[in-house]
């Protein structure tokens, strides 16, 4: 896989544009269930700022964030995201895998499908050897997805004032 757009069995993963803000807001940022472990719901302006300032466009060698659209949806509604955010862990730059999915699609394996595609892209298209996950210990669905795609528990850490469990994926290494 290369380029900006990825395909899985059920999904198109493509870069975000600001025109996706309403969909992403409705399905993700305005849903209290989705935002339960992410400091609660956000305003539409906050959603726009996230898309504009944090969701980098993926391109060869440079990880970013993809918008997820179901292939069988004629409206091409954005139902979540998957990708990588630049973060810091104990003073070191790291790439954090991030994923969020509309709650009506939970339990279908779609998040695993998306995260697997992003993982494969990462190791095929960057020179980076590891990505991490920062997950609150009580966010058991997220921990399960991380493990399903081959991430394993690394260590506890405090990230931006939150006590999280860190997970990591070391690519082909054991
Ligand atoms: C984290 C999140 C994406 C996980 O969603 P999910 O639907 O549970 O994730 P998965 O795609 O891994 O699906 C796994 C479930 O689908 C089921 N499933 C069905 N078909 C499947 C398939 N083909 N492949 C894998 N799992 C499948 C699994 O059995 C599992 O069900 P279970 O939860 O009853 O055990 C979702 O909970 C979410 O968006 N949370 C809010 C945002 C968030 O907290 N993000 C993470 C921040 S750290």
How do the helices and strands line up, and which of them pair or pack?
Elements lengths: L5 E2 L3 E5 L5 H9 L14 H10 L11 E6 L7 E12 L2 E10 L8 H16 L5 E5 L4 H9 L3 E8 L2 E8 L5
Antiparallel strand pairs: 1-2, 2-3, 3-4, 4-5, 6-8, 7-8
Helix pairs in contact: 1-2
The structure holds coenzyme A.
The site of coenzyme A (COA) has 19 residues, from strand 5, helix 3 and helix 4.
Compressed to H and E, one letter per element, the order equals EEHHEEEHEHEE
The small molecules bound here are: coenzyme A
Q: Mean of the pLDDT scores? A: 95
In oligomeric terms, what are we looking at? single chain
Q: Looking at CATH, which topology would you report?
A: Aminopeptidase
Q: Please list the strands of the largest sheet in the order they lie side by side.
A: 1-2-3-4-5
Domain module count: 1
Q: Give the radius of gyration.
A: 15 Å
- Summarize the main sheet: 5 strands, antiparallel
Q: What's the number of extended β-strand segments?
A: 8
Strand content: 25-35%
The CATH homologous superfamily is called: Gcn5-related N-acetyltransferase (GNAT)
Tell me, briefly, the overall form: globular
- The second-level CATH architecture is 3-Layer(aba) Sandwich
Question: Which residues sit in consecutive blocks of at least 5 with pLDDT less than 50?
Answer: none
What's the end-to-end separation, in Å?
A: 23 Å
- Helical segment count: 4
Helix percentage range: 25-40%
Helical/strand content category? alpha+beta
What is the CATH class name? Alpha Beta
């Amino acid at each position: 896989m290369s380029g900006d757009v990825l395909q899985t069995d059920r999904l198109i993963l493509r870069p975000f544009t600001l025109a996706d803000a309403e969909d992403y807001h409705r399905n993700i940022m305005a849903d209290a269930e989705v935002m339960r472990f992410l400091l609660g719901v956000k305003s539409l302006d906050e959603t726009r700022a996230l898309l504009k300032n944090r969701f980098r466009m993926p391109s060869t060698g440079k990880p970013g964030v993809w918008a997820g659209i179901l292939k069988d949806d004629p409206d091409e509604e954005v139902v979540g995201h998957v990708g990588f955010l630049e973060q810091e862990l104990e003073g070191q730059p790291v790439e954090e895998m991030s994923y969020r999915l509309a709650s009506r699609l939970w339990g279908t394996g779609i998040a695993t499908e998306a995260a697997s595609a992003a993982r494969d892209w990462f190791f095929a298209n960057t020179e980076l050897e590891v990505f991490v996950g920062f997950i609150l210990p009580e966010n058991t669905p997220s921990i399960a997805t991380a493990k399903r795609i081959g991430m394993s528990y690394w260590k506890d850490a405090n990230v931006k004032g939150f006590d999280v469990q860190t997970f990591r994926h070391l690519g082909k290494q054991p």
